[in-house]
Design a protein that fits this description.
Helices cover 37% and strands 13% of the residues. By secondary structure, the chain is of the alpha/beta class. Strands 3-4-5-6-7-8-9-10 form an eight-stranded parallel beta barrel, surrounded by six helices. The protein has a two-stranded antiparallel ribbon with strand order 1-2. The protein is globular and about 50 Å long. The termini are far apart. It holds the Pfam family Aldo_ket_red.
Length: 336
């Protein structure tokens, strides 16, 4: 495993982060989830990403239990706040001071730790003044409950404003967690340049496009049984945008490209996002331990220029690049 610095901080995280968005507490049983975490640790992964909303708080509990007994100082644990959890009352979502302060305490209890290394705003809250949110994060850091602060799916303008305010308040905003893959490149034109200027790195989710970039989904063929595309608990809705036959046909053109550099298609996808020097880590999930070991095979790989060109040529016409999608996909009101 190799590690990269996160933003302008001194924190180093593993190039592959293990995430449990659609798996722990939802898609897989707890014993399998624990096996996947053990596989991540065995592979040298030290960074683990979760959120209070995943499986309505259960994912945090499962991850905390799976990491029990590990040396805390050897891990980087990330979680998030924004979406509604629990009974979903009027203050059970958003980035108000009340919700942030209550949520960090609940997350720490579920994770079984005194602090998280990175606490992230899961979305931007248009209903709460940015000053209120950032002051709450500053207090969370000063109380020692989080070491660093990050955001997820914020626009370039929001990242710039948030980083500037964090600096004024005496703490660091060091990370952005956006969707990023060969097929979804909307952060490249605006978010990445703004992040570089602000001293923020990307920790990207869905680098394999919900599994589409593994090549297992074939154009004109039934969806594989037991795959994320058949999961009605959330997986099917998130992957649907990538299942058009035109996209699946283009993805199949990547198979010989991957073979030319002795990588599997999923390894090629993870290696591709890690080529971006503003990306500190790629988040991968797993429903089986062997998936973890496969994805870690992308660590340290540098793709030649001709391979990067071949990827662009194969996917020409099916790549989403519109930077406006970050804002358009964001909630405009608090969830209830």
């Amino acid at each position: 495993m190799e590690h990269r610095y996160l933003g302008h901080s001194g924190l180093r995280i593993s190039e592959v982060t293990y995430g449990n968005w659609l798996t722990h507490g939802s898609q897989v049983e707890n014993d399998v989830a624990t096996q996947c975490v053990r596989a991540a640790l065995d592979a040298g992964i030290t960074s683990f990403d979760t959120a209070d909303v995943y499986a309505n708080t259960v994912a945090e509990s499962v991850l905390g239990e799976a990491l029990k007994g590990e040396r805390r100082e050897s891990l980087e644990i990330f979680t998030k706040v924004y979406w509604a959890t629990g009974p979903k009352g009027p203050n059970d979502s958003g980035l108000s001071r009340k919700h942030v302060m209550e949520s960090i305490n609940a997350s720490l209890q579920r994770l079984g730790t005194d602090y998280v290394d990175l606490y992230q705003a899961h979305r931007y809250d248009t209903r709460t003044p940015l000053e209120e949110t950032m002051q709450a994060f500053a207090d969370v850091v000063r109380q020692g409950k989080a070491l660093y602060i990050g955001v997820s799916e914020w626009t370039a303008e929001q990242i710039t404003a948030g980083a500037a305010m964090a600096k004024e308040l005496g703490f660091q905003l060091i990370s952005s967690q956006p969707q990023y893959s060969m097929l979804w490149r909307v952060i490249e034109d605006e978010v990445v340049p703004a992040s570089r200027e602000a001293g923020v790195s990307q920790i990207v989710w869905s680098p394999i496009a919900q599994g589409v970039l593994t090549g297992k989904y074939l154009p004109g063929q039934p969806l594989p049984a037991g795959s994320r595309a058949t999961d009605e608990k959330g997986g099917a809705s998130t992957i649907s945008r990538f299942l058009a036959d035109e996209t699946l046909e283009a993805v199949q053109q990547l198979r010989p490209v991957a073979e030319s550099v002795n990588l599997t298609m999923s390894q090629l996808a993870v290696a591709w996002v890690l080529q971006n020097d503003n990306v500190a880590s790629a988040i991968v999930g797993a429903s089986r331990p062997e998936q973890v070991h496969e994805n870690v095979g992308a660590v340290g790989v540098r793709l030649p220029d001709e391979v990067m060109t071949a990827i662009d040529e194969a996917l020409d016409g099916v790549v989403e690049r519109d930077p406006g999608l970050t804002a358009r996909n964001a909630p405009q009101d608090r969830p209830t």
